[in-house]
Write a structure and sequence with these properties.
Elements (H helix, E strand, L loop, with lengths): L1 E5 L4 H12 L3 E6 L14 E4 L7 H7 L4 E4 L6 H6 L1 H21 L4 E7 L22 H20 L2 E7 L1 E3 L11 H10 L4 E4 L5 E2 L1 E3 H13 L4 E5 L5 E2 H9 L7 E4 L14 H7 L7 H14 L1 H15 L1 H28 L10 H13 L1 H21 L4 H5 L2 H65 L4 H10 L5 H16 L3 E7 L5 E7 L8 E3 L4 H9 L3 E2 L10 E7 L2 E9 L8 H27 L1 H4 L6 E2 L1 H18 L3 E6 L10 H6 L6 E4 L5 E6 L3 H13 L4 E3 L5
Parallel strand pairs: 1-2, 1-4, 2-3, 4-5, 5-6, 6-11, 7-10, 8-13, 20-22
Antiparallel strand pairs: 9-12, 14-15, 14-19, 15-16, 17-18, 18-19, 21-23, 21-24, 22-23
The structure holds nicotinamide-adenine-dinucleotide.
């Protein structure tokens, strides 16, 4: 089964993902990694780096049929929601609507939404119950409240089952201490780095701290429950900030605590009533604050080294602004250096080369290297140098203003500088646009390629399943073909093959039931079957159960005196026969095979119903008028199926005829029929002489059978050659 977890690389999401993975689900994650971390998930899964509001999410749903969607991705900072409400609503409202809509479109069974205690605002009727009015005080709380309404509406309008959990303060391993984080992870972080703990207020303010694995447990349970609506998810226990510090102090010494002024909007007490979720979801928090803190502490301790290396990475990152500054001013420095070189060359220039204007080279090279901005600077510097040269040659500054040659030279500098700079600038921005385009295309390609591979994998897997499936269409077709006969005897002997091959079992037996349901006779069986030829129903608890209940019997206790499974075969509402199977591999002893057995026996029942209906309709043509003797054609067909059963399953049968010099069977058919079982027949053979056909009777039984007939004055012989 597949589950999609949005925000699965985040704090709560990664624990939810762990839980589903442990329960055997295939886990899929959508996360834009804005606050999440891929390293939080260590097992095999499929992750998509996508924002929940992105239209590409549809491809993820199209390629996978999800059983449940757990929507945790959100902008989860109250401060950010106040500073940038638009960003908050993009993730928390548009993102939710996108995923909710896709869940409905692609027929997801359950949608779980992470709401928050923030929807209650400053309501002081603690412990807060679900039915209390909501009045959020931040855009974050508002977006969660709106989210709950969307979930409710999607259930009403489209029948998508949705459940919303209002989390209290969640804490535990992997919670970030950056930004707002949770107070517990911030304290843990500061305690480990020997820093002062800051408490806003006197520390007596209370919160309802819930351990993250308890949250994951509730979400997992809800994913397969029939519950929907809104539930608080909390411990219903108040714990003050001072109590948290005290508990942490028992594990690691707290260096210093500074109490600062209470922050605006901080509520003094917060606790959510959790009776509803406990009662209806059969869930209860497993971890008290003591044990939860210990587990969190152990995780922080274990990850200290990692966090330290992360800190050094952060200090390395702090160097980046200097690098950026260096990068920014480098072109100016290089430009000035080139100008100094140009000035030096100009003044030391050999008179032979004085016709060459080095400043033009300088402007062109700088323009090519750095584009417009630096080329204009190079032009300004070159004009300055040119005027300075003229002044050194003894010209008056004012006279230069009237010199058209000077203006012409300045115009050339400007022209070269602007043309080169502009051309290079255009070329650079075209290259950048092409690179951006290429990056976007590459990203799109990677995404579609990933989707394509995934769809291929699913397709291959399905194809393999169809090929390997024992009940594929091809097989079912051949099975129904085998049962096509209109002769019940044929249907019975084909059934043995059919059941053997569909159920992959060694031993199959079919018993017919007499009209009083007192006896059952073996009519067809496989080679390996070692059961009795006839059963007295009263003595056999298993068969008695099948006949009374009319259902599939499964030998769950593995009793040695009963087959592994038995199923009744009905005709006209009456049980006509029972199929028993044995010798099944242990891994097939599952609900799937029980259902398969039921389907197979239903197939047999309908084949038999057809055959019996045919026999009833053609009764007058089957029997010699007024006698129980089968006509030649009907008898030949039954004999044929007996021969087949003998060849394939070694099922014996015996044919008897009147002894030499004795009156023929035709002379007293009713008396003889009265001595036969339901599975035996009297019929006309090829020579139009009446013979008796005894099912499931071998040579070993012959003497006893002949004796029984002889005791009634009927002398019979075994028909040679027929066997
Ligand atoms: P988190 O920041 O650790 O996890 C959020 C995850 O969602 C991150 O991996 C982030 O990268 C991802 N994400 C954010 N915006 C996204 C977007 N637009 N598209 C795709 N991915 C995006 O936060 P968390 O504490 O694990 O919270 C999970 C959920 O529980 C959130 O919905 C939050 O509002 C809710 N919640 C948390 C608490 C708590 O105490 N931690 C309390 C109440 C409700």
């Amino acid at each position: 089964m597949k589950v999609l977890i949005t925000g699965g690389y985040g704090f709560i999401g990664s624990h939810v993902a762990d839980r589903f993975h442990k329960e055997g689900y295939e886990v899929y994650i959508i996360d834009n990694l804005s606050t999440g971390n891929r390293g939080n998930i260590t097992f095999k899964h499929k992750g998509y780096e996508l924002a929940v509001e992105d239209a590409k999410c549809e491809e993820v749903f199209r390629a996978n049929q999800f059983e449940a969607v757990v929507h945790l991705a959100a902008q989860a900072s109250v401060n950010t929601s106040i500073m940038n409400p638009q960003l908050d609503s993009e993730s928390n409202v548009l993102g939710l609507v996108n995923i909710l809509n896709l869940a409905q479109k692609f027929k997801v069974k359950k949608f779980v939404f992470a709401s928050s205690a923030a929807v209650y605002g400053t309501n002081e009727h603690i412990p807060l119950k679900e039915e209390l009015p909501c009045d959020p005080i931040s855009p974050y709380g508002l977006s969660k409240w709106v989210g709950e309404s969307y979930c409710r509406k999607w259930q009403e309008l489209y029948g998508l089952e949705t459940i919303c959990f209002r989390f209290s303060n969640v804490y535990g391993p992997r919670q970030s201490s950056a930004g707002e984080g949770g107070v517990i992870s911030i304290f843990m972080d500061r305690v480990f780095s020997g820093q002062t703990l800051y408490v806003y207020g006197d520390g007596n303010q209370t919160r309802d701290f819930i351990y993250v694995e308890d949250v994951a447990d509730a979400i997992f349970r809800s994913s397969y429950s029939r519950l929907s609506g809104i539930y608080n998810l909390s411990t219903n226990t108040e714990c003050s900030v001072n109590e948290v510090i005290e508990a942490i102090g028992t594990m690691q010494s707290v260096r210093d605590i500074t109490y600062a002024d209470r922050r605006d909007g901080d509520i003094s007490r917060s606790v959510l009533n959790n009776e509803k979720v406990k009662r209806e979801l059969d869930w209860s928090p497993m971890y008290g604050i003591g044990e939860g803190l210990q587990r969190t502490y152990a995780w922080f301790e274990l990850n200290r080294a990692k966090m330290e290396s992360a800190t050094s990475a952060v200090s390395a990152a702090k160097l980046t602004p200097y690098r950026q500054m260096f990068k920014k001013y480098m072109p100016y420095a290089e430009n000035l250096l080139a100008f100094v070189l140009t000035a030096w060359l100009t003044f030391t220039q050999d008179t032979d080369y004085s016709a060459i204007d080095i400043k033009l080279f300088y402007i062109t090279i700088i323009g090519i290297m750095y584009g417009n901005r630096q080329s204009i600077l190079a032009v300004v510097l070159s004009i300055g140098l040119f005027i300075y040269q003229k002044l050194l040659d003894g010209r008056e500054l004012v006279s230069l203003l009237y010199d058209t040659n000077v203006f012409f030279q300045i115009a050339i500098y400007l022209f070269i500088g602007l043309v080169v700079g502009y051309a290079i600038e255009r070329k650079n921005s075209a290259i950048q646009a092409a690179e951006r385009n290429k990056d976007e295309l590459e990203e799109k390609y990677d995404f579609l390629n990933g989707m394509y591979k995934e769809v291929r994998e699913v397709k291959d897997e399905l194809q393999l399943r169809i090929l390997n499936s024992g009940d594929s269409f091809g097989k079912i077709y051949s099975v129904t073909k085998e049962l096509e006969s209109l002769e019940p005897e044929n249907v019975f002997s084909s059934t043995v093959n059919v059941v053997k091959s569909i159920m992959s079992v060694q031993s199959v037996a079919i018993y017919t039931v007499n009209p009083y349901r007192t006896y059952m006779r073996l009519i067809a069986h496989s080679n390996d079957y070692e059961g009795q030829a006839s059963i007295r129903v009263e003595d056999d608890a298993c068969m008695r159960w099948v006949l009374n209940e009319g259902k599939v019997f499964v030998n769950k206790d593995l009793a040695s005196n009963a087959p592994l499974m038995c199923a009744p075969i009905f005709y006209n509402g009456e049980i006509k026969a029972v199929i028993a199977i044995d010798g099944m591999a242990f891994n097939k002893f599952s609900l799937y095979y029980q259902n398969l057995f039921k389907v197979t026996t239903d197939l047999v029942s309908s084949a038999l119903a057809r055959a019996f209906a045919y026999i009833e309709a053609t009764e007058s043509q089957r029997y010699v008028k007024g006698t129980p003797i089968l006509r030649k054609e009907a008898f030949a067909s039954i004999l044929e199926s007996k021969k087949m059963a003998k060849t394939h399953h070694n099922t014996p049968f015996l044919m008897l005829c009147a002894a030499e010099g004795e009156a023929g069977i035709e002379s007293r058919p009713d008396q003889i029929a009265g001595m036969l079982r339901e599975t035996d027949y009297i019929g006309l053979n090829e020579q139009e002489k009446a013979v008796i056909l005894l099912s499931n009777t071998g040579y070993d039984d012959a003497a006893r059978v002949l004796e029984r007939f002889a005791s009634r004055g009927i002398s019979l012989n075994i028909v040679n050659g027929e066997l």
